[in-house]
Design a protein that fits this description.
Keywords: Transferase. By secondary structure, the protein is of the alpha/beta class. It is about 45% helix and about 15% strand. Strands 1-5-4-2-3 form a five-stranded parallel β-sheet. Helix 6 crosses helix 7.
């Protein structure tokens, strides 16, 4: 399963290679903090409990002509969304670290820099 680091995503935003950002978090979390241009399809709780039916019912809201990057709080539940999208024929990746990783990247936090080093070492 593919993942994309926040710095890699940032490089692609606003380019011809910009992915579709699918934020699966609950609406209230999305309303507090989100990546500009992302689309909220709040299926986090369903996926967390192992139910992917809601996401499958909403696939028609997700374009299939470009990569989809799934976003959740930390990137764990988004992996499930990425798996569903992969199975449905989408080119999909998970945002490493989720919105927390993105926020850390934006702030240049020490925690993000350590995680980023870890992600790079893991390949």
């Amino acid at each position: 399963m593919s993942r994309i680091r926040p710095d890699e995503l940032d490089e692609r935003l606003g380019t011809d290679d910009e992915p579709f950002l699918l934020d699966i978090r609950p609406e209230s979390d999305y309303g507090r903090r989100a990546i500009d241009g992302s689309r909220n399809v709040p299926v986090y709780d369903d996926l967390r409990s192992g139910d992917d039916a809601q996401l499958r019912r909403r696939l028609d809201e997700i374009p299939d002509d470009r990569e989809v990057v799934t976003v959740c709080k930390m990137g764990i539940v988004a992996k499930r969304a990425t798996r569903v999208l992969d199975e449905a024929g989408y080119e999909a990746s998970t945002l490493a670290g989720g919105i927390s990783g993105w926020s850390g990247y934006q702030r240049g936090s020490l925690g993000y820099r350590i995680r980023s080093l870890w992600w790079r070492l893991r390949g």
